[in-house]
Amino acid sequence: MSETIPTDSPANLTPLSELGEFGLIDRLTADIKLYHKETIKGVGDDAAVIAAGEKVILLSTDLLVEGIHFDMVYTPLKHLGYKSAVVNISDIAAMNGIPKQLTVSVAVSSRFPVEALDELYTGIRLACDRYKVDLVGGDTSSSNKGLIISVTVLGEAQKEDVIYRSGARPNDLICVTGDLGSAYMGLLLLEREKAVFRANPDMQPELEGFDYQVGRQLKPEARTDIRETLSGLGIKPTSMIDISDGLASETMHLCKQSGTGCRLYEGKIPINPQTRELAMEFKIIPSVAALSGGEDYELLFTIDTKDYEKIKDAEGISIIGHMTEASEGKAMITADDKQIELTAQGWDGMKNDGRGSI
Amino acid sequence: MSETIPTDSPANLTPLSELGEFGLIDRLTADIKLYHKETIKGVGDDAAVIAAGEKVILLSTDLLVEGIHFDMVYTPLKHLGYKSAVVNISDIAAMNGIPKQLTVSVAVSSRFPVEALDELYTGIRLACDRYKVDLVGGDTSSSNKGLIISVTVLGEAQKEDVIYRSGARPNDLICVTGDLGSAYMGLLLLEREKAVFRANPDMQPELEGFDYQVGRQLKPEARTDIRETLSGLGIKPTSMIDISDGLASETMHLCKQSGTGCRLYEGKIPINPQTRELAMEFKIIPSVAALSGGEDYELLFTIDTKDYEKIKDAEGISIIGHMTEASEGKAMITADDKQIELTAQGWDGMKNDGRGSI
Q1: What pLDDT is stored for residue A351 in this prediction?
Q2: CATH number at residue B107
Q3: Nearest CA to B289 among A89, A193, B281?
């Protein structure tokens, strides 16, 4: 009797950091056997797709762990509840579906009073009201340490409306909604003020004037509105994904699943002016905050070039590049016209803080 | 800036232990607003029920936390993976549905090598093969401490076949599949041997001859076979639930949701003879292991008295009591003919180990 973790000599064991998040997921989900014809799409997209009569059900789930995905020092519980719902709703939006039902499981240590869970659920309910999603399941248990939240969301779509990661073709235009990098700069701001506070608890945090960045980090929104915008423009994207890990990583997912390469244009990446200034202050290249920062929950999608005229003047949508043949590789053209290879990070194994980082 | 847990004076805050699991769930899910007509049943049963064309989709989710729901010292990862799938599949069986798809999210600390996750997923896949369930979603992240597993399962049923907790009526017979209490005795055995091992690592664990009890704890099965058994007998239960928290607690759920009282007969509760002996050895009344032990994952259901003849000789199904008017209360008739009030424990808040216990 001993801890039942495999006990080969350590030399034969592989640390998680060696594979990284995406390598690990690939390994764990390789060669999965599917038994049911209703299972249209299993792992490998923002949500699973399951046939249900005329329609399909979309299914996505996320696990949020205190100290990894959020820091209780600066995350109000109401915002945390809201965000934990939104990040899942965003996955349904990324499939071009309509979010419908949600379940929430929570494990908490005894340091949380009932009122803390009330706050958390108030945030979850706010998101349910905002996005018209039904909270249909609840589960609570205790934890030895900290707060753990698991949210699962179900969505619905007509089968022909679902947009996968795998549909992009060479020459398709790469588009993104909103602006990128602000959520990450919000995180850096909060981390900085936390360090200041730790050093001197009498100091007041200097977050004023940065409501946008802090809000993007603590209380993101899901782009469920884009489905109607695009349908209004008469456009069906060829592929789509939401930006949780960063523009670089998500673009590479679309390329991998679609079997394409890509060219992104640094100068076209939409970045809020204040976020740009803030990045400079933090000595970060602004486009890097967009490429690797993550948590913006905007939508990244590709469209056929024939749809260019329809989309070119659409407010809040930027064309930032195009797909290529796979053989041309995945690259970004910098503002000074250099071509650099795209690299992506998911959570970085065990090497650092376990969340997408630069 | 400070931890954003509500900061009322402690006197105004409510410790989680004061409400207990069921009180807490009631509080957090009170007055939920539902927006979609497809949402047939939200919180309050083994699974949510969602209309999907001619059929319904069943949705259930569970969160398993190391140190609360399992102990790595004596839980092989392969068994843990298997069990984490089975406990969810059991929820679908409890609605009289067919499990179809599964998602698994895992958070692990860096003490786990990749090979440990391989083991865990091997167990999950074994359950998927055994129960013909498609693994359709995967998510991994790091954790600061230990292993956390969240499993969500989707099932399917004809709308008219779904069995809720709420359909029992006074006089309905209370039935249970298999036998009860063995999983709990298996847990006590494992805990005892762990203590022995801690005191003297040279001692070999004495688990031999108790394969059944240890197996019930570490590698339970879901009673997905009962759907066909009952349909073969021409019986549709009036209510049903699976036994995760213990017979007492689950019976009380059926009573509460159905608006009835009940009488259980201690002498009728099916208990494995060896489990009975083992309980005595541990100085536990055997029926208490069945009533409050939990984790047997058998099905508890009620049937109309007119179905008595059909079920009375069915192998592996025991009639253990009957429903009454709510005003008659919830009670058990002991072997020596005394009437005692039923009491139920879910996880016991923060007072002890956070899992169903005596």
Answers
A1: 31
A2: 3.30.1330.10
A3: B281
